[in-house]
Design brief:
This protein is 85% helix and 0% strand. By secondary structure, it is mostly helical. Helix 2 (33-56) crosses helix 3 and helix 9 (258-270) runs antiparallel to helix 10 (274-300). The protein is elongated. The protein starts with a helix and ends with a helix.
Length: 349
């Protein structure tokens, strides 16, 4: 009995010691924790490409991992850096020009009522809400522009810290690509799960994460490009800025893109461009909406798809908690929760 008590006391002490040291270590690397998590996510997504490169280079793991990182930086990193500069510039311009533009429209007394067909009902109500609509649009646009500028600025503030986080993320990706499988095998011995449950946690977690990120990145890119192109053709200011906003919001199925192009239609109606307003509305419904209705189920799939409500709250919660990278981290956490819940249902049914 004394030996059993001694063993339990020893185990409890080891657990407490492990928890204390682990919390201390996490506190020490806290500023780099997001960089490490992103490195793990990106390494998991790039791992199939790494395996093909490794086979082509005859099992030279260091060269294969280096090749994957260089290709990723050239294909994604450089264009993203250039796009960030353009978006920041247009966001600053929007934040500065929105209020004067609205004031100019109000001074010219452009009325929504005057631009609408005479057969529409309740026309007398439109005139009174014209000024309110314009002011609300001004406030919303300024808020979006200010948030985007502050988010991009905070992401890169302190050049030394940003470069250090970037270096750690790239180095961690390099390490995870080479030693990822060994790390997962080692981690499995520390987790009190059966082999089947652990494999499901890894495989389904990665599958749901991939599906969520494909929905965000691919769908967001296509919808952002379509909206940006339409704004450019119409002559609206800041097409790159608004395309980026659509990219961020399009992760919300069926709701993200209309948040941008519907107010643009209203703005065109208010300013007298009724033909462009109708054209943009048709483009938004028939073309941009087609991406949500047809491409999203095909690209994301149904088996790994998270419920739309879960995607919405996870993205918004991720942005509030982690900033812009929450668009990626939020759905990843939700995907892990979905996987753990499936294991829970099997274990306790």
């Amino acid at each position: 009995m004394d030996q059993k008590k001694h063993n339990k006391f020893q185990q409890a002490f080891i657990l407490l010691l492990l928890f204390t040291v682990l919390m201390g270590f996490i506190g020490m690397i806290l500023q780099f924790l997001i960089a490490l998590v992103l490195a793990a996510i990106f390494a998991g997504l790039l791992y199939p490409f790494y395996k093909k490169t490794l086979l082509y280079l005859k099992d030279k793991s260091v060269l294969a991992a280096s090749t994957v990182l260089v290709v990723t930086i050239l294909a994604v990193g450089l264009p993203l850096t250039a796009l960030t500069g353009m978006v920041t510039s247009e966001a600053i311009q929007f934040s500065e020009k929105t209020t004067p533009l609205v004031k100019e429209i109000l001074d010219e007394k452009i009325s929504l009522k005057e631009q609408l067909p005479s057969w529409l009902p309740l026309q007398d109500k439109f005139g009174s809400i014209n000024e309110t609509l314009l002011k609300k649009a001004s406030d919303a646009t300024s808020a979006v522009g200010s948030w985007l500028v502050s988010s991009l600025s905070s992401a890169t503030k302190g050049t030394a810290g940003f470069l250090m986080s970037l270096f750690i993320m790239l180095y961690a990706m390099f390490y995870f690509l080479i030693n990822g499988q060994k790390l997962l095998d080692s981690f499995s011995s520390l987790v009190p799960l059966s082999k089947n449950d652990y494999e499901e946690l890894m495989s389904r977690g990665l599958m749901v994460t991939k599906a969520s990120l494909k929905g965000i990145v691919i769908i967001g890119f296509i919808q952002g490009l379509l909206v940006s192109l339409s704004f450019w053709l119409i002559g609206l200011n800041g097409p790159v800025f608004w395309g980026t906003v659509v990219f961020l919001l399009s992760a919300i199925p069926g709701l993200g893109a209309p948040i941008v192009w519907v107010p643009a239609v209203i703005y065109l109606m208010i300013t007298g461009s009724m033909a462009w307003a109708i054209a943009l509305a048709i483009w938004g419904i028939a073309v941009v909406g087609l991406v949500d209705n047809l491409l999203r189920p095909w690209i994301v799939g149904n088996d790994a798809k998270l419920p739309d409500l879960v995607i919405l709250v996870s993205i918004l919660g991720g942005i509030i908690t982690f900033g812009p990278v929450g668009i990626i981290l939020g759905p990843v956490v939700a995907a892990l929760l979905d996987t753990v819940l499936n294991i829970y249902k099997k274990s306790f049914k």
